[in-house]
Amino acid sequence: MTEVAQQAVFWTDDSPVCEPMGHGEDIAAHFHDYGQLRYAASGALVTTTKVGTWVAPANRITWVPPFYVHSSRSYGETDVRVLPVPAALSEELPPEPSVFVASALLREAYLAMSSEHEPAASERGRLLLAVIGAELIRAPQEPLRLPEPSDPRLKAVTDLLHADPAISATLAELGRRTGSSERTLSRLFGSELSMSFHQWRTLLRIQRALLGLSEGTSVTETAMRLGWANPGSFIDAFTELVGQTPGRYRSTAGAAHS
């Protein structure tokens, strides 16, 4: 999902537990006057803004700052838990959307907090929020933000890649399909997204690999589905960007689901 609606809806409230989302279900673009944490207790949640896309399987927690317009899509049967964040904690978190690696303590405190009827009103809720805040501040951030373009010529190309990350077409071939020259598109990738076409497509594929691996897809099948010539090149690219092998990531994501 790459579209963020021009007329975003202002939402004033959220239940800590959302209705379960089916695979491919969308949440339209909206914003809040408070910060929000979003955790997929099962499945995976993709959050998109005008500047980027963030992927959060079940071992990641997404942070959306106040007034930041965002939309979402679920992958797999997704059980989303959302928490409003008090202003004091919001000020200690990043100024743009981010994804944090969820420790076991952070995950359990978050799930316990989301089960509270009025989480901020009880002493237990305040203690759980303090644990969540302390763990978030020390948690490593997921570095895989996929920048999204605003130039319509570049967006026509990235839309094709979002629709089929495994496509093997060169930038010149994609340019012919969308009516732009390779030179223009290459310049736009660098000036607008600060990366090359190859780097952007690799990052897109790695984001999709996170989703597949978190659902239990094998490393080899994930590599083939996403257009890598062989599993070895996928493993190298994944390890360089994520900081661990896809096999290791798959096993830890599976543990988060259990």
UniProtKB/TrEMBL annotation:
GO terms for molecular function: DNA-binding transcription factor activity; sequence-specific DNA binding. Coiled coil: none annotated. Keywords: Transcription, Transcription regulation. This is HTH araC/xylS-type domain-containing protein. The lineage of its organism: Bacteria, Bacillati, Actinomycetota, Actinomycetes, Kitasatosporales. SMART domains: HTH_ARAC. Gene3D superfamilies: Homeodomain-like. Residues 155-252 form the HTH araC/xylS-type domain. It comes from Streptomyces malaysiensis.
